[in-house]
Design a protein that fits this description.
The protein is 72% helix and 1% strand. It has 313 residues and is mainly alpha-helical. 46% of the residues are buried. It has a two-stranded antiparallel ribbon with strand order 1-2. The protein has 13 helices and two strands; from the N terminus they run H-H-H-H-E-H-E-H-H-H-H-H-H-H-H. It has a single domain, classed as ABC transporter involved in vitamin B12 uptake, BtuC (Orthogonal Bundle).
Amino acid sequence: MMDPSVIAQTMLVIAVEEGTVLLLAALGEIYAERSGVLNLGVEGMMAFGALMAILTMMATSSYVLAVLVAVAAGLSLSLVHAVLSIHLRTNQIVSGLAITILGLGLSGFLGRREGIIGRPIVALPDVSVPGLSAIPVIGPAFFDQNLIVYFAYALVAAMWFLLFRTRLGLNIRTVGENPAMADSLGVNVYGIRYLCTLVGGALAGLSGALITLGYYPAWTEGMTLGRGWIAIGLVILATWNPSRALLGAFLFGGVTALPNAFMSVGYQQIPSSFLQMLPYALTLVVLAAASIRGLRKKVAPPAALGLPYSREE
């Protein structure tokens, strides 16, 4: 049997890795939904970003360029969703689902056409934080990671501060709650919603890049494995708050780490397929809990979420 500290460290490492992928996508979705735009296209944007990151890395061997292209890939799909949802005022659920199908289909098609399935790349190198990385158990998990993970840590604080402590954040929240009132006060409702939707797409693309550049450095079709949907559930669990999303992401990541923990101690009474199902089951539990009347008042989404806005009405 393995040392308990080694098992705990392994679980934490996996929790941080999987959790950061979810965190980046969830942070972008929080901003989109805070502005009143429901983006169900996160999964497709992540898949497209993941593919474009690994294609760019194979072509240029540049991590920076690969990340930028992945972000641009997420932006491009989110722009389509923004135009459909904000200006053309289509149903946001239908538009988001269409973007997911487009992103998954496009990434699968291009991946097969380029013949890169299973071709490995050199993963992003880890950077140890002096002193902090030496802390037993938690140090290697949190402070011996690649630069995208450290960027995610900083992003949580920055996005929380912007949303709750700045005028722009107040405008975003007002647009998501009462766009007509925000418009009457001179806030550019369309501009805010476009900005937040594009931020959501950019971070979904970055999340996809973290998958292929950081932790699974070889392309396989469907490698996002529903993480985009889990990220959307995480937004509800975090009550549309970036700081709570950090804790929720590592919770989901910890659930993902359970199969590895049980394998490490040789416990095989619970089928591995059941353990792998747990993150998705937890997502369903969160969504179901949010629909209960008593909790709905405490975990209320932005009032104008999913509702198109027109100045003429």
